[in-house]
Amino acid sequence: MNLHRRAILAFAAFTAIAPAAVAQEGDPIVIGEINHYTRMAAFAEPYRKGIELALDEINSDGGVLGRPLEFVFRDDQGDPAEAVRIAGELMTREGAVMLTGSILSNVGLALSSFAAERGYVYLAAEPLADSLVWTSGNPYTFRLRASTWVQAAMLAERAAETDATRFATIAPNYAYGTDAVEAFKENLTRLKPDVEFVGEQWPALFNIDAGSEVQALERAKPDAIFNVTFGTDLARFVREGGDRGLFDGRDVYSLLSGEPEYLEPLGDEAPEGWTVTGYPWYALEDGDPGKPFVDAYEEFTGETPMIGSLVGYLTAVSIAGAIEKAGSTETEAIREAFEGLTVADTPIGELNYREIDNQSNMGAYIGTLAVEDGQGVMVDWEYKEPGPYMPSDEEITAMRPAE
Amino acid sequence: MAFFLAQILNGLANASALFLVASGLSLIFGVTRVVNFAHGSFYMLGAFIGVTLMEMLPGHVGFWGAILLTGLAVGLIGAIVEMIVLRPIYRAPELFQLVATFGVILVIQDLALMIWGAADRMGPRAPGLRGVVRLWGEPIPKYDLALIAITPLVLLGLWYLITRTRVGILIRAATQDREMVGALGVNQAWLFTGVFALGSALAGLGGALQLPKGGADLLMDFNILGPAFVVVVIGGMGSLPGAFLAAILISVLGVFGVTYLPQSTLVLMFVVMAIVLIVRPYGLLGREEVAGEHGQVGRPEPPIRPYGQTARLVVMALVGALLLLPLVAETFVQILVIDIVIFALFAASLHFILGSGGLVSFGHAAFFGGGAYAAALLVRHASAPMEVAFLLAPLLAGVLALGIGWFCIRLSGVYFAMLTLAFSQLVWSVAFQWRSVTGGDDGMISIWPAAWLSDTTSYYYFTLLFGIGGILLLRHAIHAPFGYALRAGRDSPRQAEAMGIDVKRIQLAAFTLAGAMAGLAGGLFVFAKGSVFPTELEIARSFDALIVVFLGGVKTLAGGVVGATFLTGVEDWLSRLQYWRLLLGLLIIGVVIVAPEGIVGAVRGAWMRWRGSAPGLKSKGGAAT
Q: What is the mean pLDDT of residues B397-412?
């Protein structure tokens, strides 16, 4: 039994390390940030650097409400339950005034539900799940990035312009994959009623058997392919598909594949001619609102930006804007400030959050892949606002639980 | 027909890396009896080292040379790990070493992140083997054909080593009876190190060989681990030809699964494993395990007894302190204690069947997550009040445990463990894929407790009541005749049978009770978090519980509870640091080496020495935790 007591004492000792923060004039305003820093380091690190850049700019400009803005970064290992515990700790012990973070949709959903129950504001920056702001939406959750539905709809619009009618899909076997395929099908069928879906492949996430998937897709003899795989799965799929000639003479529409996180590892094997959504930071020219951000980021970090960097930057900028507008750090005030919030002069132009579903107007870049200097790039790209791809206001109101 | 043949070739190529990893795992288990969780990490190291070497060495010679050098390098790393981490703890209770290998996983994870960075690496192409050849009109990548040729060569080499050399004779002898080999004067330590190095080298080779078809990334260690274990078990633990057959079987079936049943990618191999184990309990080419050594390695276990006066007072004081905690501590401390109590109950339920029953379950999360899901489903689909859903959680988890246990308790040892793993994967995949009911991996959210419990402090007392109640119930069961019968079945099934104990039935009852208690923990969990996701059913969750039981001490009654408290507390504290997994891994390895009987075991030993009595001989009261 000694140990029992000893363990409890030790435990009590280290829970006593950090005293509860009592907010005072001049003290930093603390934001709780939870992410998968160990499990998804390749995505979380650029995101964090984007936040740090924004904080650097905000604080050298005098901070927010005359106080410096500070983020407390915590690792949840990609585990929703862990994230919820850390969220509780950040809010009750570290003196955080609101929460943000998560890349994975399931962690985002867990945090969103927790935030609504406890009355904390949560800005879901990266998670793509539509349900975050629609079927599971709540007044306390706001979301920054263009969702699965919107990005799939943009690709479907492009696909509808060609004469391909036989489509096959390949998507990782989990919620994001199924949502994306559903959204693509629904949008494409609406735009072009005579399309036919001749094959669906569902590889396990990060465990694709690329050779077999390519064989199976080839067997369906599609005119075009819709791809949702990403990361290592994408690399394997591209390599096997390229070797086996799957992409010869076929259009491929691929979600997120133009994002530097996924495109850079492919190097000169990036699949030319694919239509993708992504982030062509290298092609932004002077005059584009995104260009100053790219320059500042490169100077601040010595690295080139990823889409995560942009999202991180916009996250911090949104939060600063909301607190400034709220004029206080009280939850209700921040929540009300976020509704219909407008932040001018961001890398995507004017950023605002819709009142109807708490979704921001951050859009997506859509373009075609090419290889230049041994590296995949997006060409003929354009930045598209999400508005035209959203369901109607009535549909959204019907989906969102009554407030 | 051409398509069919192309598919088979595809499967054979996929089998290559899988066989290399699995054969190493099988070899290590056969000789050292170590279930090496870190084997996937050696595979990952092989991939990263391979990429690095291939970038430095050009051309044909460079490519193939890099693969061989990678094998050597990873073999060397394996030898070092064996000497530093495993050698001191071979005398610990069976399967204890897996905790140490778990520490190794964490250390290698963070070291790889530090050395190679977070970005995925594409594997270099094999020179001269880019592109395809057409066989019967079907495109077959040239490198696939190279892989198909290499695998049998490796098998042949291993076969020669094992059957034709002196080393091989020693390895085979050690697989059959390692004590006898030691008694005959063979230096076991070096034999074990050699085999561990060979097994690691094979994993490293596998990692390097798959590079042209994939690459190196930080998730590949866990990704290969599941399939590798499945192959080893289907083939029969310790059997190399078995591993070869199983690797081919799994890979070829996988290819057909992708084509004809594309949704099956998550579970197919676990279904195959479950079927094989139910039909052939020792795998395709495995032998019945030599009599289990559970409960006999190391020092004899002191007889269990209820706490003495002092210990009771301490426990009561402790519970009293927990009851008074909300008066002094902030909300977050209550949240942390809630998490610890839930995890402690979960761990105690596993500890109950593992420690007292000798049944090592690798799939206990099925019941924890099962309970959580049962409650959540009742709330969501039957609009059940929270109280009803909560009370039904342990009941339904118990029913699930009864069903799964009915299949599993026919087996013993590692095969039992692997069958529980297979079933828990099935439960996981149901939760994962049946989206219309379970929400898939988006889980079920907004499952909050009833209004009278919505305050953190109320829920804190609610958790204490059921958490501590559950733990006490399990303790009571151990001290009851039922517990004695269970331990009799663990230590000597034959004698127990002879005394009229229906060992299997007792085990099934214990398995069900443990499942129900895990379900109770799951019920507490879901209302504490307000949501449940398939992560609660994952293998990783089962392993969490397993690790803390061993860390706390299998042969002690408080092991699960103490281990859970220790790990949750330490992790919550360490995870604020950047490379915290490295520290946690080192800490676990340190604890394992310093306290091979677990934390509680070590403390008890120290207490005994202090009281001046040798353990197990004449222990004075009050210390038998």
A: 93
Among A138-142, B101-105, B136-140, B313-317, which is the least confidently predicted range? B136-140
Taking CA atoms, A104 is separated from A126, A175, A178, in Å, by 8, 10, 15
Q: Tell if the CB–CB gap between A113 and B446 is shorter than 8 Å.
A: yes
Average pLDDT value for residue range B62-73? 94
Cβ density class B520-554: b for 16+ within 10 Å, e for less: bbbbbbbbbbbbbbbbbbbbebbbbbbbbbbbbbb
How far does A48 lie from chain B, in Å, by closest CA?
A: 13
Taking the domains of chain B in order of start, what are their residue ranges? Answer: 2-221, 336-538
Residues of B in contact with A114 (CB under 8 A): 529-531
Any residues with CB less than 8 A from the CB of B244 and at least 6 apart, and which? B19, B23, B151, B155, B235
* B310 contacts in chain A (CB < 8 Å): 1
Residue A336 near residue A326 (C-beta atoms within 8 A): yes
When pLDDT is averaged across residues B165-176 and rounded to a whole number, the result is 85
Q: Which residue of A has its CA nearest to B251?
A: A209
At A227, is the secondary structure helix, strand, or coil?
A: strand
> Which CATH superfamily is A149-278 part of?
Response regulator (3.40.50.2300)
Beta carbons of B214 and A245 less than 8 Å apart:
no
- For B623, the enclosing helix (H) or strand (E) is none
Cα–Cα dist A316/A309, whole Å: 11
| Contact call for residues A140 and A116 (beta carbons, < 8 A) | yes
From A85, A106, A215, residue closest to B6, measured CB to CB? A215
Residue B612, C-beta contacts closer than 8 angstroms, at least 6 positions apart: none
Please identify which residue in the block is written with the tokens 């696939």. Answer: B144
Please tell me what DSSP assigns to residue A131. G
Nearest to B335 among A42, A88, A239 (CB): A88
Q: Which residues of A touch B112 (CB under 8 A)?
A: none
B462/chain A closest Cα distance in angstroms: 18
For residues B444 and B533, give the distance between their C-alpha atoms in angstroms, rounded to a whole number: 7
Contact criterion met (CB < 8 Å) for B575 and A77: yes
Q: What is the pLDDT of residues B282-331, one digit of tens each?
A: 888 887 665 444 444 555 666 777 777 888 888 899 999 999 999 888 88
Eight-class DSSP state of A259:
S
Selected for mutation to probe chain A from B446, B471, B603 (highest A CB count within 10 Å) is B446
A216 min Cα distance to partner chain B (Å): 5
Q: What's the complex ipTM?
A: 0.85
* C-beta separation of A93 from B329 below 8 A: no
| A237 token code pair | 């799929």
Judged by a CB distance cut-off of 8 A, whether residue B120 touches chain A is yes
* Closest Cα in chain A, distance from residue B262 (Å): 5
Backbone Cα Rg of chain B: 25
Region of residue B544 (left: phi > 0; alpha: psi -120 to 50; beta: else): alpha
- Give the integer Cα–Cα distance in Å for B418 and B9: 29
User: CB B161: neighbour CB atoms within 10 A?
Assistant: 15
Among A215-219, B458-462, B605-609, which is the least confidently predicted range? B605-609
Question: Dihedral angle at the C-alpha atoms of B483, B485, B487, B490, nearest 10 degrees?
Answer: -140
Whether residue B574 is predicted with pLDDT greater than 90 in this model: the reply is no
Report domain extents, chain A: 2-147+289-363, 149-278
- Residue B223 contacts A where some CB pair is shorter than 8 Å: yes
Cβ distance A243 to B213 less than 8 Å, yes or no, reads: no
- CA Rg value for chain A: 22
pLDDT digits (tens, 9 = 90+) for A4-63: 444 444 444 444 444 444 445 678 999 999 999 888 888 899 999 999 999 999 999 999
Q: Could you confirm whether domain A2-147+289-363 is CATH 3.30.1180.10?
A: no
Q: What distance in Å separates the CA atoms of residue B415 and residue B34, rounded to the nearest whole number?
A: 14
